[in-house]
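WARN retry 2 of 3 for item q-0093 after timeout on previous attempt; input resubmitted unchanged.
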Amino acid sequence: MVTKVKKRSYSRGRKVTEKDITLFTRQLATMMRAGVPLLQAFDIVAKGTENGSVARLFTEIKSDVETGTALSEAFRRYPLYFDDLFCNLVGAGEQAGILDDLLERLALYKEKMQALKGKIKSALFYPCAVMGVAAIVVTIIMLFVIPAFKSVFEGFGASLPAPTLMVIAMSDLVVAYWWLIFGILFAGIYFLLQSWRRSAAVQIAVDRALLRLPILGEVIRKASIARWLRTLSTMFAAGVPLVEALDSVGGASGNHVYLTATRKIQGEVSTGTSLTVAMQNANVFPNMVMQMASIGEESGSLDDMLGKSADIYEREVDEAVASLSSLLEPIIMAFLGVVIGGLVVAMYLPIFKMGQVV
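OK item q-0093 returned
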């Protein structure tokens, strides 16, 4: 009878990240192709990492394999780090006797996905960082700078301009209720994050909203399509049946809109509908993708055509990220100029009236 359950804590070592798993996959694929025995490969990887958490994880997997557990089953015991796609490909490689080839495919797939995610994160980091710094600067001005100006203007002897009065009123509101404003702000962010983690409805609503964003939405859409195509191409090329491959494809896209569409496609394909027709019925893929899939089905090279489509969309994501970065820089600079410059001008407008007072 279980009396207590708690999350296992790896106190020594950093968190095991997706980058660690990608590096491990590449190292394991390289050593397996070079003829290094599997257990020795795990030893080499575990001893070669400086992260204690990673070393313990791979040591435990090695212990499972030593006791006779299949490699794919050993990976399945750690779903936090190895998803269904990873385990299915490893299992397919074990059954077909081509584990080194499928590990190579899996390593290439994870490297491409890691690069794609990194490009999107880098595109979002700059505007988020600038907006965060701007929010801190505005808060400091409201709490400390404007009250100092207000004490100077109290004996001004003339009516203050409307912009100055408005900024002072906003500052008084922030000074009087800063605890309430920040409390509501942080509570709202915390509630949104918890709702997003725990509620599928909230996740679906957020993912749909992200796809509708004016500029960023198109980048997210292309990235989701690229991940969807790359995942399906990798699974199908590994010999996984199409219906089973679609189990892992939806989650790999990173968006609930495409997850829902994938489930619909899977249901239609399982009843005998062709993949192209099922994708058309889902109504979330562009015509180019469906035409490439149709050519692949007719020619018997579906994995190759899906891979080429993924290459196209990954290049489009690269171009979109570059365009987004160059477009956001002047917009952010203009926004900061209006906000910060507006506050400064509003505070200095009364000084221009000093001559009239004198």
